[in-house]
Amino acid sequence: MSWLLTWILLVAGIHEAFSQNSSATMPVPEPTALEPYNRTQYCKWPCECPEMPPTCSLGVSLLIDGCDCCKTCAKQVGEVCNEKDPCDHHKGLYCDYSRDKPRYEKGVCAYLVGTGCEYNSVIYRNGQSFQPNCKYQCLCVNGAIGCLGLCNESLPPRVWCQTPRRVKIPGQCCETWICDEPRRGRKTAPRHAKQAPSYRNSGWHKNCLTQTTSWSPCSKTCGRGLSTRITNANKRCEMVKESRLCNIRPCDVDIIKHFRPGKKCLNIYREPRPTNFTISGCTSTKPYWPKYCGVCTDDRCCIPYKSKTVEVEFSCPNGAKLTWQVMWINACFCNLSCRNPNDFFAELEQYFEYSEIMN
């Protein structure tokens, strides 16, 4: 029994010594308090905004800041952003806070993953701004290209100018209008043609703010077509679509035969004598002698410059009578601003058929 008691005491001593050594070599850390951090307050309310919004550089969006207070110029790629200064989302940018761990206060504007664009065999990344020529500043946004014209398009000189020309000035990108011909008299619509009421300028009409768009270009380059516009100049003040007949030039006449010797253009063409208009078997009650736009044998095209809208009454075989609005051309001009369907920038050009000078 003595040897058994001795063995138990020996084991107990070894266990106590091991426990003491373990507690000495592996101390248990005491919990400590986290370091306090004060987050920067970028937004301040109530809002205090300047009287005039800032002027942003070309191609930089003017946005409402992240505090939903004031207008600010959007941050661009690589610039510092935060909850107040937003990135230019129109260019597919977002604020990347991944490098500011763990605070996530300040970020850097970066591009969202998107589809690039291709133009003229050049690949542009999503959100990239580029200038394909001196007239346009373009932007690639997720596969689509949007462009802003850098030239201030203007109408030709507001004089009776049958051959205005846009000339290239050395050292300048945008063309300038010139007109060398003197002012001439003007022939308007015939006296028996009643001019249709015009509501081109917005104004109050029977407790209604009338708004009317310009007439669209004629649907056909020769022969009778249609031109439309949107207006609310009616008793109900409702937006409706109006139509008028238009005929820029006849299709069955060789206008080139009427050129003067040595000339390459004829801006105005008229039939030898007055005739009656016809539509769907109905004939105008009175004859008319309209003007038509001519043609050119060089690179110029002739389009309406001055026009008005007249009301023409038609008589039909069944005895019915109807009235149509008809485009009456007062003047045309020939220039180099011709439509080219294959031109990438054709739809961005300002063609004067859209905003003719109305009487």
In short:
The chain is mainly beta. It has one helix spanning 2-25, and strands at 62-64, 71-73, 80-81, 93-96, 107-111, 117-119, 122-124, 129-133, 136-141, 144-149, 165-167, 176-178, 194-195, 203-204, 209-210, 224-231, 240-247, 268-270, 278-279, 282-284, 291-293, 301-315, 321-335, 357-358.
What is the element layout, followed by pairings?
Layout lengths: L1 H24 L36 E3 L6 E3 L6 E2 L11 E4 L10 E5 L5 E3 L2 E3 L4 E5 L2 E6 L2 E6 L15 E3 L8 E3 L15 E2 L7 E2 L4 E2 L13 E8 L8 E8 L20 E3 L7 E2 L2 E3 L6 E3 L7 E15 L5 E15 L21 E2 L1
Parallel strand pairs: 22-24
Antiparallel strand pairs: 1-2, 3-5, 4-5, 6-7, 8-9, 9-10, 11-12, 13-22, 14-15, 16-17, 18-21, 19-20, 20-22, 22-23
Q: Which short descriptors sum up this protein?
A:
359 residues, mainly beta, six-stranded mixed beta sheet, three-stranded antiparallel beta sheet, 24 strands, 31% strand, elongated, disordered C terminus
What does the model show?
Belongs to the CCN family. Helix content is 7%, strand content 31%. By secondary structure, it is mainly beta. The protein folds into three domains: 62-111, no CATH class; 117-149; 165-358, no CATH class. The chain has one helix and 24 strands. It is elongated, with a radius of gyration of 38 Å. The strands form nine sheets. Strands 13, 19, 20, 22, 23 and 24 form a six-stranded mixed beta sheet that branches.
